[in-house]
Amino acid sequence: MSIRSAIFYLDSPLPPEAKFLMEDSRIATNEAVRAGLQAGVTSRNALCKLAYKDFREEHPNMYAQHLVSAFEVAAGILKNHRRRLKRLRTGQAVRPPYVRRLMMKAENQAYKFDRKEGVVDLPIRAGLHVKIKLVVSQYHRCYLDDEAWSLGSLTLLPDRLVVAFRRISPKSHAPKSVLSLDTNERSLDGVFVREGSSNAVRAEFPDIAIIQQRHHDRRKRLQKKKSNDRRTTRTLCRREGRREHHRVEYRLHQVANTILSFAKIQESAIVLEDLAGIKHKKNKDMNRRLSMWPRRELHRIIEYKAEDDGIPIIKVDPRYSSRKCPICGITQHSRMGTEFECECGWHMDRHINASINLLQTASSKGLAGGLRFDPGAFRHDAMMILYEPAMAARSEPNGMSEEGVVP
Ligand SMILES: [Zn+2]
Fold it and tell me: Which of 44, 73, 237, 327 is deepest in the core (most CB within 10 A)?
């Protein structure tokens, strides 16, 4: 099951009735939180039992389903609070949770959505509905026009609205080729193998590391300049962080889209290293420079998009992948420069070598669809560039022209 949340901005200001409903919802949530804290319960049903009757008497007109949703939000808040308490060290204190932000949630039975017109019909109480017109872009149309995406819950905020869409993922295709990728700071490097041919491939994104560096420097400078005003520093740094995040995210999506459209055309399975177990280095500066975040995020994006397209993803343990020789199987004691060299005579770009090892791990477990490949073949072929920053400027929807990429 794929779940996507789409943010819609409102075409006109929120009707006052909807605002009152949000306020009531917030009060209901906070009351349920208080009751839950007192009674030591966190489940939605328990909260309903505790708070429903009292609240119903005070607000007899509120639509019952909205009330239940408010309790569900409260249950989530209480669970988070409980988790935080568990992690607390002695002497630390946490304030009891309280919702200040105006928001409300509605389950999919509790609202109607005219997907063609982009209008949400929200019941306030018996006999009173409000219509909320949304700003609909081309991006939203992908979800709205495709009936396979069914509606999930809706979250209303003063200036926008978030709709969850759900879809059953298509069955993944039986792979006719394999794309094995080693994830690095500035590129994905790998090999592409199909019946009768094999290529070294690369998707380059040096701009991401540059953006991270630039924002990091700017944050450092801000901290120094405004060192006497910590609150301003924090606000400015947060803003910097958000900007950086958006800029990096945008590029990660482009890289992922290019790789996936290639894999779709070639009916490939994608082999990635399993990054879950990799820990940060101790050195603080190295730690930031080699921040794992963009790489994990890139994997996350590739994985969920692949699920949508029915592209199988194979994750393998990356241990020794950068130090092993795929020909003779010897593990080197230390990592080398840009070129991997072995006593047996094998030499290869370090990153490409790692991806060959990933592919070997996958195929030794029978995960790569029984494709045979000869590591020696990668040495002679030219590098196939799947993505480079210049492609971001192109107008093709997936940032890649098919000729020139497929050999
Ligand atoms: Zn060797």
Answer: 73
